[in-house]
Amino acid sequence: MPTLLSVNLNVAALLRNRRDHPWPSVVGLGRIALAAGAAGLTVHPRPDERHTRASDVQDLRALIDSEFPDRELNVEGYPDARFLDLAATVRAEQVTLVPDDPAQATSDHGWDFAKDGVWLADIVGGLKARRQRVSLFADPDARQMEAAAATGTHRVELYTGPYGAAHSDPAACERALTDLAQAATEATLLGLAVNAGHDLTVPNLAVLVAHVPQIAEVSIGHALFCDALTYGMDATVRRYLAACNGTAPDQT
Ligand SMILES: CC(=O)[C@@H](O)[C@H](O)COP(=O)(O)O
Ligand SMILES: NCC(=O)COP(=O)(O)O
């Protein structure tokens, strides 16, 4: 199965929020991403609404329902009451739970399943009862996959931050790839599907899917929007789709 691409729109919302204007349009950029072939849209609405707002998530639900009913909305965040209410209201096809502190600049680690597993299992059960797919943000550590699976989750999203940060260090990159491949293999053996995300780029994505072919879906925002400044949104999404299939277009 090819690795699917979910386009994270947080950066579009961040840019929009610089001024009291409705542009760039988060929905408009989501529409371009889906028309170009993305399988879904991701948002990570943080409590301070510094980028995606609850209203954006509702507008994206309406976009998918009205124009792209075969695509998915993936809502990521820390599972407090506000987040879980929003994920239910917008009927997110996939809910990705992330252990973020509200003060965090961005996500930088996965769950500690030994510590939080029992609490997470209860939340996972509630989401599954609503027929929502659940994914848990996880460090690329094969030893944690058994405790992740014990929560009852459908998937884990492997945190690719260390892999993304290793772009100028081939040995560190190799180590990060090995960690990701081992974690994905263990997760698959335990019956979990595997997503991945954070700091993925066109060149590192093509290498990742070649080494870790089990990855069902990647969610990408930051680098994709950086590239869109050069190539435009439609062409950029197509470049990431090509990378999902193992082809890395030149970064010229
Ligand atoms: C869980 C994850 O890796 C992404 O959702 C990332 O946290 C994006 O969030 P920001 O756009 O707030 O950096
Ligand atoms: N889950 C990762 C995500 O949605 C996007 O992360 P990034 O590409 O903005 O680092």
TrEMBL record:
Quote the record's binding site residues for 3-amino-2-oxopropyl phosphate.
8, 19, 199, 221-222
Give the residues annotated as active site: 44 (proton acceptor), 76 (proton acceptor), 198 (proton donor)
At which residues is there a site annotated Transition state stabilizer? 157
Q: What is the enzyme's main class?
A: transferase
In which pathway is this protein known to take part?
A: Cofactor biosynthesis; pyridoxine 5'-phosphate biosynthesis; pyridoxine 5'-phosphate from D-erythrose 4-phosphate: step 5/5
Q: What is any one GO biological process for this UniProt entry? A: pyridoxine biosynthetic process
As its record notes, the protein acts as a catalyst of: 3-amino-2-oxopropyl phosphate + 1-deoxy-D-xylulose 5-phosphate = pyridoxine 5'-phosphate + phosphate + 2 H2O + H(+)
Q: Cross-referenced InterPro entries, in alphabetical order?
A: Aldolase_TIM, PyrdxlP_synth_PdxJ, Pyridoxine-5'_phos_synth
Question: Pfam families, alphabetically?
Answer: PdxJ (PF03740)
Record bears the keyword Cytoplasm: yes
Query: Sorted alphabetically, which keywords does the UniProt record give?
Result: Cytoplasm, Pyridoxine biosynthesis, Transferase
Q: What is its EC number?
A: 2.6.99.2
Q: Where does 1-deoxy-D-xylulose 5-phosphate bind?
A: 46, 51, 106
- Signal peptide location: none
For whether the record's keyword set contains Transferase, the answer is yes
State its location(s). Answer: Cytoplasm
One of the record's GO cellular component terms? cytosol
Spell out the molecular function terms from Gene Ontology.
pyridoxine 5'-phosphate synthase activity
Physiological role: Catalyzes the complicated ring closure reaction between the two acyclic compounds 1-deoxy-D-xylulose-5-phosphate (DXP) and 3-amino-2-oxopropyl phosphate (1-amino-acetone-3-phosphate or AAP) to form pyridoxine 5'-phosphate (PNP) and inorganic phosphate.
**Family, as annotated:** Belongs to the PNP synthase family.
Quaternary structure and interacting proteins, as annotated: Homooctamer; tetramer of dimers.
| The protein's name | Pyridoxine 5'-phosphate synthase
State the species of origin: Roseibaca calidilacus
